[in-house]
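Methods: example folding runs. The two proteins below were folded one after another, and each record is reproduced exactly as written to the output file, sequence line first and structure-token line second.
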Amino acid sequence: MATTTDFIVIGGGMAGSAAAYELAAFGRVQLLEREDQPGYHSTGRSAATLIDTYGNPVVNGLTVASRPFIESPPAVFGDDPVFEKRGMLLIARDDQLPSLDREMAAAPGVFTRLTGAEAVERIAILDPAYVAAAIHDPTAIDLDVHAIQQGYLRGARARGAATLMGAEVLGLQRVDSLWQVATDVETYAAPVVVNATGAWADTVAEMAGVAPLGLVPKRRTAINIDPPDDISVADWPMAIDVDEQFYFKPDAGRILVSPADETPSAPVDAQPEELDIAVAVDRFERATTMAVRRVSHQWAGLRCFVADKTPVAGPAPDADGFYWLSGQGGYGIMTAPAMAWAIAAAVTGGDLPAGLAKTGVTLADLAPNRLYG
């Protein structure tokens, strides 16, 4: 006999946790996660920064709408802030100045143009012979990913949701208007299933007989290095190459560096490649006066994209009660609140919250049917 509920959310990353929280306001929710801990894959391997201008206009709208929630979350998230002011520098070589001009024109009310020397004043290790100019965005913030996700999970449970870790989905089928979701622990049934399984979303859909979205997981690599002994990194802004060839930022007393790689991958437990680590070190050393003597930690995660690089939230056009929540690319953490509101509105037939609607983002922008010919 299956355990029956109103909504089944498959995937216990940030997207699934946020969706479980929002849907639990409308009925009984069962959250299923294959791993023994939530957020094991992409959620736990994020650069964890919110930048309003990062991504396309729909992503920007989702991010802007999500910011107030993150800056002032519900009481169930706890008393401690889940973000920290960081700021961001877009840096450019001489040959990249046209790119910097385009970025500056895109957000004139937010960005401040800096000379190379002024950029070095903000991040002491930048090489003045490399950085010709920069743009400063003071609004970028660092996110405490663990605290945000745990807040969502606490909130979901407080609203009556059940969460189950270590439950791998083995089969999905629609029987008598209910989705039967068989796991290696138990079978669950509900009229609505939300597929929030990240890199595995197409795999889960195919298991259910639902046409895939054409998701492409792409590996991104990151390393930690130690800063010079005589330099404090705590107040540095994040530094991003204007053409996104690399970035670095403070990370718990160390420096996080990424080559901003986007290598197509199968849905796997991503691991860093030696070549990508070498590229990260090389690009960092070219832009700074530091020599990297040791990599203290290295990891990789998968960022999943659909063809138009816009996240997906909405009903599958070929399967009643099957909903997609996927394709977040590199924007999943900073857009999680808005994406959760969107999927809740799509599932329940409700309206988008005013804060999201006023950005101009609509459910049609996120609907999966845009991706089918």
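Second run, written to the same file directly after the first:
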Amino acid sequence: MELSINTWQIRKVESVVLAVLLLLSGMADAQTVTILHVFRNYGAVESPVGPPVQGRDGKLYAYTYESSWGSIFRQKTTGEGGVVYVFGSADGGGGSPFSPPLLPSFDMWYGTTGNTLGSKGGVLYQITPQGAYSILHSFLDADGGVPVGSPIEADNGICGTTAGGRDVGPTVYCYNRAGLSFSVMHQFGRSELAFSTGALVETRGDVLFGVGTGSDLCGAAFKMTTSGTSVHVYNFDCSLSVGSVTSSLVEGNDGNFYGTSTGGVDSNYNGAVFKMTHGGAVTVLHRFSSGSNDGWSPRGGLTLGTDGNLYGTTVWGGASQCGTIFKISADGTYSKLYDFSIAEQAPSGMVQHTDGKFYGYLQFGGKNGYGNSGALYSMALGLAPFVAFVHGRGHAGETVEILGQGFRGATSVSFNGVAAASFRVVSDTFLTVVIPHGASTGPVVVAVPGGTLTSKKNFSVTQ
């Protein structure tokens, strides 16, 4: 029997095949944004701000500053949660928090608050998971003014930056937990750095990086050793129209830093994404323009995904001019992933949880309209679960902490291919491991029932 297929049938088959290929291609790039929890106009948690941080319990930790004096709260990735601490007038004049807490240990967390009362410039506080709060240091103008960004855990203690006081430049400070002492490591002159913003980033070679506004009122960054003996300030070329850098840098897989700015000298620009080398050379990867469908006015900085791309949010722009979610590659390829609606307003950055999804907060609105005070949302891109570090550097013989999920029944932990002789599964989302001798800088891999979990960043093994 002879089979006869005419031209029309061939073209029909080709069309069906093409449609399937396009569908599969769209599925590969598709994302699902889900509102997980809506905050109502009452209680201690209203208008949450991100990006959140992930705790050892797998929960998300974030803050508010709109409700009363603000609060610190935690939530499961399914939305359930509660308040850790509500700030008030009895807190020594610390005011509201403007960044999430640092969670360096099981029993003690650290954070900063802003300036609200008298001559006080905010405080460095410590708080237990049960909400026991105490002040470690009250900032005065001589300390460099108001602390900005979350503190970080560095070799010499809990360290951070200040914005700059009325008559003094910004500072880098550290609090020694063992000696219970506060010190200013370095104070910038106004001619070096006008203002500092965002948290510090510690990188290889015991080096700290920070950002801010230069003496020419354009973007700037600084680099200094953790001992404070070597300091370099990089003032960005104003012709780049990068503008003030208000969010912390993130280190990409290529070793360069990436960041966002709020605007440029040219009023047509409303923020940018830029790349910076360790030597301070800056390249603009993408410019945001007012009213753009791509979004404009980025907020909350960038987060590195396990696929090597960088992800962020804009407050304005998009289809409804209510903000967007975007991704950008190291070479500057920009994609808008999601448009927030009129009922979903003021996104403020995201974090990639070790379950593979991204999580962020809306400061206003939420599902079902204007009458809500923000929301928690997730974005699923189909990226696999992975592991992360509480502190991403250490030496052989030191115990380090690993975050993830599915740790029950883990059979091995390795550092760049060298298996650890000793590790302890504390919970399904947290384990501790002793860095093995012979290990070198590279990925950490945890073997769990059903497969392996690999870190998205290299762990730095120091001598």
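Comment on the second run: Residues 7-29 form the longest helix (23 residues).
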